[in-house]
Amino acid sequence: MSATLTLSDAAEPEKRKLFPIRNRTGTAAFHLSTDAVGFGQSDLEKLTEKQAVLFMAEAQWGSAQEMPCVHCGSIDTHYWTPKEMRWKCKCCGKRFSVTSNTVFADHKLPLSKILKIAFSWANGAAGVPALKLRRDWNVAYATVFTLAHKLREGLTRGFDKGPLAGVHEMDGMDVNGRRYKEKRNKPLGSRSAGAPKIPAELLKPADGSELMGPAKPPKFGKTAKQPADRRLLLVMCQRGVSEGKGTSATRVAIGLSESTKTVTAMATQHASAESTIMSDEDPSYASFRDLFADHRTINHSVAYSDGKGTSNNQAESFNARMRRTAEGTYLSISNKYLKDYACEVAWRTDTRKMSTRNKLRHVIRNALSVGMSLWWRGYTHGHHREEELLIEGAQLALGRGRQPGWKAKVPR
Ligand SMILES: [Zn+2]
What we know:
The chain is an alpha+beta fold. It has a domain at 44-101.
């Protein structure tokens, strides 16, 4: 039976043309290999608190013997005090622990438990909801919620940084923005019935024809039509050196719209001038030809790839994974924390071929590398971040939830 399903070049060239076989990236084979595992929840179960401290020290400093003092910065084999599980500096004499001056400073949970929860979190391919972590580990919701967000803070401030070099694919995707109000109680397909007629000279020109007439007034523009809480997720995927193996590095940004200003800000922040950028034919990318070594576009109404290497399919795949995470796992990501979740998806993409142990090490290393938490310290005491992180600059986020003074209606 399987023989008839196999498409060979010689036997059925026509069929192959209609159903091209996708190049395999080897990710599925990796996930089933022994390299992908070798470290599991049962290994973490055996971990003593001292071993957890040493694991974190190794993740943070690359060594559990030699490390920089948190207070004076001197690198040495500082005195280990087993009872306190801290070090005493050989230079300034002050004491420090593995979590001093990190997002986990003043942690209430034992470090071994933090590692176990972080391990669960790191292993979910499409994200892990805080409620599931709460059920699995029997800790307060606020505790796991802030813990997961501290991991995301490490990724946002420590991982999603720096320029890429080589060939990058870039794309934008609409996220959030509620349409239910305008769609409610209206039959499907009726939206255009009452819409004002657009004069012919203002319509998009047909393929091959010259652009005629005055510029489009803003009310017909993409930006003017979109809901106020709609955001644009911009992604840049650096192609791996070995062809056909997928993305090697990912950067994300959130913008208010897919404008020349936002896409240029994103690209100049994360791409070197020698880069080649591949995108779709959106006019906002038009200036890239002057900014980078090369800019190639793919017309999606014709093909997804031109057969000569031009495509932005890796960026489109990222968008699909982001949508799966946003709509399938976290369900209602606020604009305020959209960037944090996007960084999480970028990290999951880039670490997809790491072993479970290295993945845990990587996420802990990022969390320990950014200093004290700026956004989640004192969260349960009402200290919340106020801004959403946009490529245009941080802007004050609208609050969600109940208004001040809200009272429950008591049924009589
Ligand atoms: Zn010191």
